[in-house]
Amino acid sequence: MGPLALPAWLQPRSRKNAYLFIYYLIQFCGHSWIFTNMTVRFFSFGKDSMVDTFYAIGFVMRLCQSISLLELLHIYVGIEYNHLLPRFLQLTERIIILFVVITSQEEVQGKYVVCVLFIFWNLLDMVRYTYSMLSVIGISYAVLTWLSQTLWMPIYPLCVLAEGMYFTYSHLYSERRDILGIFPIKKKKM
After folding, report:
1. How many helices (H) and strands (E) does the chain have?
2. Where are the transmembrane segments (predicted)?
3. Higher pLDDT, 57 or 179
């Protein structure tokens, strides 16, 4: 009688896949909830919904982005195959923008750029996590694969533009206000 074989669900590869599937499913559900909530709010309240986007979905967004830090651990220990440095840079950028810039500065939270960034981030993540979740269990759809590998091309530059343009503009405007406030332009008397 040979050695006992472990059941399929106890095999190391199956446990890894089950864990990754659950992780991707949780992330997909979180990002889908955010995107759906934003969409319903927009169709219900129009442009007014954009101003309080952060107040409505900020907690879930912070939770999803915090959980995404696990991906660095996944890559480091080898249960997810990806390049560590690009993923680290992407996560760091989002964490800094979300926690340092948006969460810590109340005047930024009501800006339209927050809504735009959240829409772009969640659209990308819904597609990415759906693709990854199905890939782990061996399901592949050509359209989803194409979207997962292509959607970032138009959206990522728009994210960078929205982040860089808003914060650069805000900085330059504040600088202008500070300088012109110190050195006011004197009006000539007629």
Report:
1. 9, 0
2. 21-43, 55-77, 131-149, 155-173
3. 57
